[in-house]
Amino acid sequence: MPEEPIEVICRIYARPLQLDPDLLAGLAEIATQNAEFDFTDAYPDGKVVRGVDGVRRIAANWPWGGLRFEPERFIEVDADRVLVFVRATATGIGSGVPVERRTAHECTFDEGSLVRFKVYSDRNDALAAAALSGQTTPRHSNTARDSRDSDSEIRR
Q1: In this structure, are strands 81-92 and 64-76 parallel, antiparallel, or unpaired?
Q2: Looking at the domain assignment, is residue 63 inside a domain?
Q3: What does the pLDDT profile of the chain (156 residues) look like in tens digits?
Q4: In sequence order, what are the residues at sequence separation of 6 or more whose Cβ sits closer than 8 angstroms to the Cβ of residue 8?
Q5: pTM across the whole model
Q6: Using CA atoms, how far apart are residues 101 and 93, in angstroms rounded to an integer?
Q7: Domain that residue 29 falls in
Q8: How many domains does the chain have?
Q9: Going along the chain, which residue ranges are E strands?
C-alpha cells in the first residue's frame, strides 16, 4: 500500500533540508514530471514552474546561498494536501547577510505523487487558503519534533 501524503511529507522533512542536488533528486522521485511549483506568493519576482527541472532553473538564479528548510509543524489538510510550517534560513550571496523567514509549504498529491507545491510567505494565508478550499479543520497536526521521533505514529 502506498504511503499517505502526510507520511511522505513527514519523511522528507524529517531533518532540516538544504536546497541542493540531493533534495531536488528526492523531490523528483515523488513529483510528477509536470508538477506545479508555485513561488508567486513568497517572492516579489516569484514564478510558477513545472517539474523539478523548472525548480532547478530558477533556484540557480536565487540571490542567496545555503538555503535550508527546518520543519516546525505538519498539518494534514485533507487526504491529498499537507501544509508544512517551515523556518527558512539563507545567506545573501552578494551581501553575506543572514536571512530567516517562517513560511508555509502546501504539498498536494494525486495517486501518491506530488502534483503541486506552493510556498506561502504568510502562514495565516496558507491556513485561510486551506479553509477556502472546503476543509476547515485539519485531519492531523503535529510538530516537527513529533515527526522525527521514530517511535511515534501518525495519529488521526
Answers
A1: antiparallel
A2: yes
A3: 678 999 999 888 877 677 777 778 888 889 999 999 999 998 878 899 999 999 988 888 888 888 888 999 999 999 999 999 999 999 999 999 999 999 999 999 999 999 999 999 999 999 999 886 654 455 556 665 444 343 333 222
A4: 30, 109, 112, 114
A5: 0.82
A6: 16
A7: 5-147
A8: 1
A9: 17-18, 31-38, 48-50, 64-76, 81-92, 98-110, 113-120, 140-143
